[in-house]
Specification:
mainly alpha; about 45% helix
């Protein structure tokens, strides 16, 4: 595919300078820059549909039957620091 568009003089100068610095043809540098700009817009970053989200959750659920049931009420901020609350390696309180 061929795409034609007009560059401002400043943009053209920057593109020419970049091509010279890399020792590559102007067209190749322009193509690389475009590819680089588009790769950040990969489909994985797009918003997921509700149906796709539910399919993903279903896939995660498959095979998870054997995992232990960890009730959220068993977790507290203090439970993560129990070993530090005995005074030995505790961080001083304010």
């Amino acid at each position: 595919m061929t795409i034609r568009f007009d560059l401002s003089p400043e943009m053209e100068a920057r593109l020419v300078a970049e091509a010279r610095a890399q020792g590559l043809p102007l067209e190749e540098v322009a193509e690389r820059l475009l590819k680089e700009a588009l790769k950040d817009r990969s489909p994985t970053r797009e918003q997921m549909s509700v149906e796709d989200f539910h399919r993903m959750l279903d896939a995660m659920r498959e095979g998870s039957e054997g995992l232990p049931d960890l009730r959220t009420e068993r977790f507290s901020r203090e439970s993560f620091y129990e070993d530090r609350l005995d005074g030995g390696n505790a961080v001083p309180r304010r």
